[in-house]
Amino acid sequence: MSTRCVINVDLADVWKTPARKDFLRTLAWGDEVVVVGQTAKHVEVEFVFYRQQKDGSVVSAKTTGYICPSASSKIKPADVVTPFANNTVLKVHFVDVQQGDGTLIEAPDGKTILVDGGDNQLFARYLAARYRATSDKNTKHIDCVLVTHGDADHFAGLVEIYKSEQNKAQLKRLFMQPARVYHNGLVKRPKKKNGKTVSETDLLGPTAKSGKKLLLTGLVDDLLAVPDAEMNEPFREWKEALQHYHQRSRIEFRRLAFGDKTAFDFFNTKDWRIELLGPITEKVAGKAALRFLGEPPRGPRVGQESLSTEEANFGGASASHTINGHSIVFRLVYGNCSFLFSGDLNDEASRFLLRQHLAKKINLEADVFKVPHHGSADFSGGFFNAVSPVVSVVSSGDESSRKEYMHPRSTLMGALGKSSRVAEPLIFVTELVAFFQMEGWSRVTDVKKSKTRGTFFGFSRAAFGIVKTRTDGKRLFVYTDSGNVKMKEAYAYDLHSGKAPTPAPVRRA
């Protein structure tokens, strides 16, 4: 009799035979399987198997295999799995989307949140492989799409999910249906209007003066209500995708800011919750507004100036730093485990939050820290100290010289290690956990590009870059894949209320 279950150990190796021969793959804590047989020596499971094709694409199919715990592991087959109804594992996957962010949150009760989506097809491809066999009549329900801020490298990849519905290859399609779309209320305007370049202070909509401060007053709630003429091209494409989803099933649009206590009522339970920490709004004529931010001091920054909570000399008015600095910041808490998501938060805005933390109005401390702005040098050391992370994840990647920012910066990486509350913190970079295998001399298939580029020495992506975290609120497990399917970089911690996590053995069957 088949029973729907989840893996109940950190890692479980699956073999083609009960004699531990012909290795298939490794499953992880919380992964779903169907148990089709069990003895005193093994568990026979049905699971999803991924196989790379000759053209480099990956196809998935169901197959069966055997989990056969070794005697040295001291794990019994009966302890390897637990019924699906008993699942207590929260999954947070940080996906390599090159230059950008893309995170998947899956709660134990099945609630799903997408945080950003990069600016290319990588996030769409990952999700299509994870949520297979969707269609216009069988869409994947997404409880919330949260775009931390309006830079294309955080949401243009979500448009690729919409476009994937028309892909000729079924395995690359994802028909999703978001119930909610949350954002920070800022919409980028076109850089030119009537043939003239738009000023920095007009790129994000109406403004008003309040003393010496310039404030953005035209914050948006419903993105579909914004005229196309007031959106740059990535926003217009995102609006088109949202109109498509909205016509299929009504979407709740919501601008988030600190003080909103009900936005995540759909997600929160007695066991896990999301706390909204930023952006921090101000009032102008009774309406919410966001401060226009400036350029950071010129670098290179090597020293302690970023430890300050005071407002430093952030000169001028910068639309890019403003939209970054007012990223949605939130803290995901499950029992004794906490995650902090920070979008592209910068030094100036970090100091606003740090002052709130020191005044005990918010709590920034987190075990897992999604590092802001891909490892930019525009960071607050004082903010990092308040977070005091055990595990830090930097989402960055090399694509082209046009998108090269030298992320992550070495000063930031050093600050992350120094600010941790444990002696040996973990610092992951998504582009470094991807695995590329050497292919040798190659040519692009496009004839025109081939003539221009000629022969080059090529590499192919053999393993998706994903930092995978799993927790039940009492334990934290973190791992990454490798080009060698048998190898995982894996770490486990026991979690304690009010104390730093302590390292624990990885349980592998």
Can you walk me through this structure?
The chain has 509 residues and is of the alpha+beta class. It folds into two domains: 3-86, SH3 type barrels (Roll); 90-433, Ribonuclease Z/Hydroxyacylglutathione hydrolase-like (Metallo-beta-lactamase, Chain A). It contains ten helices and 33 strands. Strand 5 (43-52) and strand 6 (58-67) form a beta hairpin. Helix 3 crosses helix 4 and helix 7 (381-387) runs parallel beside helix 8 (410-419). Residues 97-165 form the Metallo-beta-lactamase domain. Pfam families: Lactamase_B. This is Metallo-beta-lactamase domain-containing protein.
Briefly summarize what is shown.
The chain has 509 residues and is α+β, with helices and mostly antiparallel strands.
Topology (elements, then pairings):
Layout: E1 3-7, E2 11-15, E3 23-28, E4 32-38, E5 43-52, E6 58-67, H1 77-80, E7 81-83, E8 90-95, E9 103-106, E10 112-115, H2 122-130, E11 140-142, E12 144-146, H3 152-164, E13 176-178, E14 180-183, E15 192-193, E16 196-197, E17 207-210, E18 213-216, H4 233-248, E19 252-255, E20 272-278, E21 282-284, E22 287-291, H5 319-325, E23 329-334, E24 337-341, H6 347-358, E25 368-370, H7 381-387, E26 391-394, H8 410-419, E27 426-429, H9 430-433, E28 435-442, H10 447-453, E29 456-463, E30 466-471, E31 475-480, E32 489-496, E33 499-504
Parallel strand pairs: 10-12, 11-13, 12-14, 14-19, 24-25, 25-26, 26-27
Antiparallel strand pairs: 1-4, 1-7, 2-3, 4-5, 5-6, 8-9, 8-30, 9-10, 15-16, 17-18, 18-22, 20-23, 21-22, 23-24, 28-29, 30-31, 31-32, 32-33
